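Researcher: Here's the sequence for the chain we discussed earlier.
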Amino acid sequence: MFTGLVTAVGRIERVEPLPGTGAGVRARIATPPAWLAGVADGDSICISGACMTVVAFDAAGFEVEISAESLACTTGLDQLGAAVNLEQSLTLATKLGGHLVTGHVDDIGRVEVFEPVGESWHLALTVAAELARFFAYKGSITVNGVSLTVNRVDDRADGSATVHINLIPHTLQHTNLHTLSAGSAVNVEVDLIARYVQRMVAPA
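Model: Thanks. This is the structure I predict for it:
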């Protein structure tokens, strides 16, 4: 489990095929000095919204094995040189300053608008019809592993929706969201509580 509060921005410095698969990859992510203090093999780290298992690490970075299935359901995890948002898994002593994030990406959203509005930035992204019902005004959304608040939801005739978000300068300075532009693909996770509520109220 994670909170969606990014604690570092890493960089993908190596990507190579997993032996014998031809589909999955092993990736190495460079991290800021001392960021991996306390991490052990087998620990979970959220990489731009996707929960991955540490299979090797040293003082300067760590490695993960990413299956073909994970690559198909996410974006940006195998792009050499790409900046990625990082968060270590939470403990019982961690402040839950964001919201409950599983690191299980639900879909790839598409950025429609990314532009400055006053001192902040307006981010609008399209989500698929299967996910549209999970988003609501003042609800939570995870974008590339970042816990954000929904400002508005515009439903579309085809069942999809446009989710509007306000980004403060601090968020842009400490995540990879400042690299977005219209057309960018992003990893999206719906709110965990909304997922269970939908399941409970859905017709049997």
